[in-house]
Design a protein that fits this description.
- This protein is mainly α.
- It has 2 helices and no strands.
- The chain is elongated and about 65 Å long.
């Protein structure tokens, strides 16, 4: 029974360490996004549409 108490404390430390790690990753991503130059922001805004995408198979007319 006393061994469970030690493991419960360790589990709490692992939970706090995981939360701190995830929090630091999100804060770092947000910080880098906020400090991004306007040219890079415009490039990232248009990134998915930089090349023409082919139409989906259900959008092509195959009945003709």
């Amino acid at each position: 029974m006393f061994r469970r108490l030690i493991l419960e404390d360790t589990a709490a430390l692992y939970t706090l360490a995981a939360f701190a790690t995830a929090f630091s990753i999100y804060v770092t991503c947000a910080w880098r996004a906020l400090r991004m130059s306007p040219g890079t922001t415009e490039r990232f805004e248009n990134l998915p549409f930089a090349t023409a995408t082919p139409p989906a198979s259900h959008e092509t007319d195959t009945s003709a």
